[in-house]
């Protein structure tokens, strides 16, 4: 079994590493752009003299670098690797996979240059100009096919929970992306059909792409590290099917009060509230799986990140369900609260789980250990504190913003002024995140180009458990 | 899961249902909306001879919309008004009525927006009809907001040049001693992009009724 896994790892080593290296590069670019935009949000004159560096260009560029550069490359590495391992089939022609990956990064680079040059569409998560996205879809067709092919030639009977999520997401992503390209970017539909389609797409990108990929990774890595099975098969089935059935409807709740048919937003609200079912069943299932192993979780870098991400998933989904209710939506809609919620889902949940999965995967690909424990600490605390500060600042600041906004006697410019302290707090969060990301990048490249002493290091790099760390 | 055909069908049907229910059905319901008159006759048709709404905007305003898209204005500004009683959109005089689907059918790129870092712009052309104000504001938003605005300066849409002969009639007027004014002997004139953008902002109006969304006096 171990020999078989090692053979599979060897077959996918170069392509998976290629995706991890790409993801790390994009993470660095996205981090720098996010730092600048966070600062610009309270110091509006920063870099305002240069058209290419204005907030309206940098903000979409940072989001796209993070989601499609860091996020998708990480998904390609981790998703395909887990798929290959669980299907117990070595990947063939992995060189071709690298070529597909090159096209992905080429398409994204062209697209980002397009955004800087002013070719953006200004539609959230669809900013990349149409000429770049054609390249991305073509590249994805090759990459996604690999995962699906691996599944079709798998050994063994059934399929594991992680495989359900990854296989489903591999089908869902090209579907939502192609529809959005056709109806919004390439051949824009009439009127608000564009807004409805782009909202449907944007929340599906979270619920049907990032979320299932991160859950797939969590459902794979947690049992592997702990050496115990997922607590409940039935909770797994319930969690997966309810996410699949409800996840793609909830986005419409974010159009409440907008110029769209009422039945549409009502459907969004109902399904968003029902999303409590997958949230609770997944959260409970993972909690019961790790119950009683807190020392273990704290010592394993992979589990530390993944359990943080799981917690953020529950927080993200529950808040998303609650703010769909019109009384609360009325307050937080159009405020920075919603930005805080997006950050919770994309970073607090998805990215943290991806980091955890990388801490587990990369040593197995390279057959060597992470060189520095200190850098892992720095990464974890930078990311964990950074995202917490960011999200709390946006939640609290956004809530007050919404309350003031609904009181027409408060002048608009006073609201603008009162959000500034919260935006400064968010900038502190962005600095902490950047520190964490730099620590991760150094550790990763150090490991990649390791010299003798690192290569010779024996046994996994573990952190200290909670009480030891407190004493140290 | 042992029943793999069920898994495959489930994966496909799950998304197909929401695609049909939301995207396709909105395409069918809203994709064929046309311009109409403010009121309808008894048989439900538009009244012959009355102007059609929403009106189409001028060519210069359309170019301005392109500038609006290029600069990413929509990340901080919405263009939608919610009904009276839901939020304070109507009280803040961002519109006399809620916007409806038909209001957007003449726009090539629909940007209803998700963030109100700045105010809603649906009725900018009614609320702020002064062209000079818009140029001052775009050149430096702090100059029209007692320094309170956090909107970036779009000074790169303006040309600061030495005055040769008579000053340009298009030059921005600054109060004497204003900290935003250029040096003596220089003037700030809008580029074509700035003029187009202001034309677009002035074209943003919601001063007409629609059969499904009348303005109640």
Give the integer mean of the pLDDT values of chain A: 94
Approximately what portion of the residues of chain A adopt beta-strand conformation? under 5%
**Spatial strand arrangement across the major sheet of chain B:** 1-2
CATH class of chain A equals Mainly Alpha
The main pleated sheet of chain B reads as:
2 strands, antiparallel
Tally of separate helices of chain A:
17
Radius of gyration of chain B: 23 Å
Pair with the biggest interface: A-B, 81 and 73 residues
Q: Per the principal axes of the C-alpha atoms, what is the gross shape of chain B?
A: globular
* Number of separate structural domains of chain A: 1
Number of strands of chain B: 2
Distance between the termini of chain B: 62 Å
What is the 3D form of chain A? globular
Proportion of residues in helical segments of chain A: over 70%
Low-confidence stretches of chain B: none
Write down the CATH topology of chain A: Cytochrome C Oxidase, Chain A
User: Could you name the ranges of chain A where pLDDT drops below 50 across 5 or more consecutive residues?
Assistant: none
Category from helices, strands and their pairing of chain B: mainly alpha
Number of strands of chain A: 0
CATH class label of the domain at 60-203 in chain B = Mainly Alpha
Walk me through the structure.
The complex is a heterodimer of chains A (472) and B (217). Chain A has helices spanning 2-40, 55-87, 94-117, 130-152, 161-186, 193-226, 233-246, 262-274, 276-290, 294-299, 301-322, 326-332, 336-366, 373-405, 412-448, 452-456, 466-471. Chain A is mainly alpha-helical. Chain A has one domain (2-456): Cytochrome c oxidase-like, subunit I domain (Cytochrome C Oxidase, Chain A), CATH 1.20.210. Chain A is globular. By secondary structure, chain B is mainly alpha-helical. Chain B has a domain at 60-203: Cytochrome Bc1 Complex, Chain D, domain 2. Helix content of chain B is 29%, strand content 5%. Chain B contains 5 helices and 2 strands; from the N terminus they run ααααββα. In chain B, strands 1-2 form a two-stranded antiparallel ribbon. Chain B is globular, with a radius of gyration of 23 Å. The chains are: A mainly alpha (472), B mainly alpha (217). The interface between A and B is large, with 81 and 73 residues.
């Amino acid at each position: 079994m171990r020999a078989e896994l090692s053979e599979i790892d060897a077959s996918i080593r170069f392509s998976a590493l290629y995706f991890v290296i790409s993801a790390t590069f994009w993470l660095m670019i996205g981090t720098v752009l996010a730092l600048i935009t966070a600062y610009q949000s309270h110091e509006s004159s920063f870099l305002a003299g240069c058209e290419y560096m204005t907030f309206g260009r940098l903000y979409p560029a940072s989001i796209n670098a993070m989601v499609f550069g860091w996020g998708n490359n990480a998904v390609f590495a981790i998703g395909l690797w887990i798929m290959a391992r669980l299907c117990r089939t070595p990947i063939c022609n992995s060189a071709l996979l690298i070529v597909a990956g090159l096209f992905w990064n080429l398409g994204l680079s062209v697209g980002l240059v397009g955004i800087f040059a002013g070719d953006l569409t200004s539609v959230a998560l669809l900013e990349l100009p149409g000429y770049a996205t054609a390249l991305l879809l073509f590249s994805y067709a090759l990459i996604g096919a690999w995962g699906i092919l691996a599944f079709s030639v798998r050994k063994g009977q059934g399929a594991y929970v992680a495989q359900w999520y990854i296989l489903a997401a591999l089908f869902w992503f090209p579907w939502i992306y192609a529809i959005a390209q056709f109806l919004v970017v390439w051949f824009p539909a009439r009127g608000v059909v564009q807004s409805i389609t782009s909202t449907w797409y944007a929340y599906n990108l979270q619920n049907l792409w990032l979320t299932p990929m991160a859950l797939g990774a969590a459902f794979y890595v947690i049992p592997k590290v702990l050496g115990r099975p997922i607590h409940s098969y039935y909770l797994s089935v319930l969690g997966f099917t309810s996410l699949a059935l409800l996840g793609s409807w909830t986005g419409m709740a974010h159009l409440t009060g907008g110029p769209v048919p009422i039945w549409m937003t009502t459907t969004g609200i109902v399904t968003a509230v029902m999303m409590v079912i997958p949230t609770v069943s997944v959260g409970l299932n993972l909690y019961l799986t790790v119950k009683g192993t807190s020392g273990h979780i704290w010592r394993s870098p992979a589990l530390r990140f993944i359990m943080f991400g799981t917690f953020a998933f529950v927080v993200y989904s529950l808040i998303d369900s609650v703010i769909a209710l019109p009384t609360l939506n009325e307050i937080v809609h159009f405020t920075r609260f919603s930005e805080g919620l997006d950050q919770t889902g994309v970073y607090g949940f998805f990215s943290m789980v991806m980091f955890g999965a990388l801490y587990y995967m990369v040593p197995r690909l390279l057959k060597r250990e992470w060189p520095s424990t200190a850098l892992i600490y720095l990464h974890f605390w930078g990311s964990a504190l950074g995202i917490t500060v960011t999200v709390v600042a946006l939640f609290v600041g956004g809530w007050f913003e919404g309350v003031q906004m609904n009181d027409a006697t408060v002048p608009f410019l006073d609201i603008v002024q009162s959000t500034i302290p919260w935006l400064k707090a968010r900038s502190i969060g962005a600095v902490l995140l950047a520190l964490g990301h730099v620590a991760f990048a150094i550790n990763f490249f150090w490991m990649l180009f390791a010299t003798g002493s690192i290569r010779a290091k024996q046994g996994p790099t573990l952190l200290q458990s909670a009480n030891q760390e407190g004493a140290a | 899961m042992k029943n793999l055909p069920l898994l495959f069908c489930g994966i496909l049907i799950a998304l197909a249902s929401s695609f049909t229910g939301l995207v396709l059905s909105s395409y069918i319901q809203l994709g064929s909306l046309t311009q109409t008159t403010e009121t309808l006759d008894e048989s439900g048709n538009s009244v012959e001879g009355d102007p059609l709404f929403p009106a189409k905007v001028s060519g210069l305003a359309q170019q301005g919309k392109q500038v609006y898209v290029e600069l990413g204005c929509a990340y901080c500004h919405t263009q939608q008004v919610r009904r009276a009683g839901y939020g304070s959109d109507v009280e803040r005089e961002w519109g006399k009525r809620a916007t409806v689907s038909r209001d957007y059918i003449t726009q090539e790129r629909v940007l209803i927006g998700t963030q109100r870092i700045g105010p809603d712009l649906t009725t900018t052309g009614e609320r702020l009809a002064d062209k000079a104000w818009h140029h001052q504001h775009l050149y430096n938003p702090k100059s029209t907001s007692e320094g309170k605005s956090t909107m970036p300066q779009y000074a790169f849409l303006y040309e600061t040049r030495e005055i040769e002969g008579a000053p340009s009639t298009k030059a921005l007027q600054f109060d004497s001693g204003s900290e935003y004014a250029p040096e003596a002997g220089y003037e700030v004139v809008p580029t074509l992009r700035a003029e187009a953008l202001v034309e677009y902002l002035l074209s943003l109006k919601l001063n007409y009724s629609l059969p499904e969304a009348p303005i109640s006096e």
